[in-house]
Each structure stands twice: as C-alpha cells, then as structure tokens.
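Support request, please re-run this one:
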Amino acid sequence: MDRVRSLDGTARDEQTTEAGGPVPATVAWHTEVTGEQVHRPDPRDAFPVAWRRLDDSHFQIRARWPRRHRFFTEVAGRFQDPLLIPETLRQGSMLLAHAAFAVPVEDRFVMQRVRYSASPARMLLDDSAEDVVADITCGDVRRRGRRLAGMRCAMVLRRKGRVLATADGRLDCVSDRAYRRLRGERLSLTGRPVPLLPGLPPQAVGRKDAAAVVLAPSPRPGAWQLRVNTAHPTLFRRPDDHVPGFVLLEAARQAATAFSLFPGLMVATDMDMVFSRYAELDSPCWIEADALTEGDPDPSTVRVRGLQDDAEVFRCTVTVAASESAVPPLDPCGSRSGPGAERRP
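Re-run finished. Output below.
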C-alpha cells in the first residue's frame, strides 16, 4: 500500500480501491463538505469530511463517526451502531450527487432500496479516532436531459484498511418542482404537530433513551404502531411532509430487536429494506414482525413490514445476532479465531 498524507498531514497507509491497486497520492481530497450537501444541517449529524473522484463512476469518501452521539449510541454495550453504515451510504450518495453529478441542492432524493451487511467483530467500540473510508461505485446512472435522475451506489466501508461492511442503495433525484407536484396537498402537513404516542420501554428495543424509541405498544403480538417523534433532532432533521426513510429503517431494526428473545443483547448485522410508498404523518402506520422461517421459535432473520391504510409502505429483512456470538473468541495466542461469529448463541 502507498504511504500518503492524511487530512491532518500525518503519514498513513492508504486504502486500495475495489478496482484493484492503491490510489495514487496525487488524487486530491475535496475537504469542503457542507451540511447542505449531505442533508444534515446539524454538524453533529454530518459524517463525511472529504471526498475524491477516482474515475467517472468510482469515488472515495472519508467519514468521521462520532464517539458519542444523541442517537447513534453503542449497541449491546460494546458495538458501534450498525445504522451508521446505511447513514454513511445515504449521506455519501447525496454528497456525490451534489458535488460530483451537479444535482441542485434544492432537489429531493427518494430512496428506493437500501441494504447493508456488517462485520460485528470489526464494529467493536475502541479508542480509535480513525476515520472510515467508503469506496463508492455509482452505477445504473439515469439522466433526464442533463440532470441526474437516479443511480445505484455500492459501498465498501473500511477502517484501518479492514472491511467493516458493505452496503448499496438506489435513489431517485426529484426536482423541487416535480416533488411539489407529486406531493400536492400533502405539503400542507409540513411542520404540523403529530401527537407523540407512548413508546415501548427502551430496553425492549435495544435502546437506552426513551426519545429514540420509534415503536408504540399494540395489543397484537409482533405488531406495533409507529411512534413519530418530530421533535427528535436526528430523526426529524427538519420539518417534513412525511416520515423520513431513516425513521422506518430504525423502526424495522427495533421491531426485529423486540421480536427476539433477548432484545438488549441483539445486533442487527444485516438489513435489506425496499420502500414502496411514503409513510404519511396523519395516519397510523403499523409495524409487523415475523420469523422469515415459519415456526422458528428463536429466529435470527426477521421479516418486518410497514402498513398504512391497508397498503405496504416498506418491507425489510433483518438479521440479528446475539452480542456474545457476534465476536469470535480469543485463541490462546490472543487473536480472534474462526472466520466469523455464529448468528445465534
């Protein structure tokens, strides 16, 4: 690997790209990344700090994950929140759309699908301040005239040269004018107060902070009502006319966690979510979870659906692992043994 200078001027080993071979040190980083470009006005929620173009479809983004955060907190007491992975993909895709593909900052983005697969053993909390580096490939690029209409972004995420996770997603770009036509009268709901339902106990969904709970109790087993907390500064980063997709992703994670036998000890190692329609603010949205394999008494893979007004809003498959089995045991020499962890204890 080449020895290059990092953003702070110190020497470090540079990552290799998915195309093979090290990135030349002469490929410059663009370090002026704004919250507007990643659609996170609060700097505490904005993670990309630099990006660079490798060729017409390959890019690298350097992201700084927070040591402490009001929402992305540790999981099972020892892991970084794996939802940092799809959030890094989301922010990175928007950054590239604006900075590399000249999408106007007022345009809207509609995520059609997002999925990730993480290596929990490499998500363990430690004292490292090392940035993560995302190699992103933009494919299936669609244009409407000269404007970007959509693309698929595939990401390999590394820290210290080691792969943490892979992820990919498909997003559409919608002009502000087209979005206003699409949403019509629904735009009048922007910023309107939404009654805050009582939430599940935080420990039931793997959380410590009640404000981060997005599920409300329901009399039906394996079903909950979506709890919409528009005052949460990370989940609702600005007044919106619908429930943000990230809230639905968190709802799927919490539903799969609550569905497990030991919710406080579970890590969502894999998620695959397909969005079908907007989740509206003025109608109850029901979150249902079931084992992917019928009759499994202790499922490691859970199917979660969001339903509103008898229509499916999203469908998600979540794989969870117990925290003690997510990290291989130490061998006598002090290194981790085995290719990976078993999914269940």
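The longest helix spans residues 84-99. The chain is about 10% helix and 30% strand.
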